Amino acid sequence: MKLLIINGPNLGRLGRREPSIYGATTMEEALEGLRAAFPTHTIEYYQSNVEGFLIDRLEQAADEGVAGIVFNAGAYTHTSIALHDAIRGIAVPVIEVHLSNVHQRETFRHQSMISAACRGVICGFGMQSYRLAIEALVSAE
Ligand code: DQA
Question: pLDDT tens for residues 88-98?
Answer without folding.
Answer: 999 999 999 99
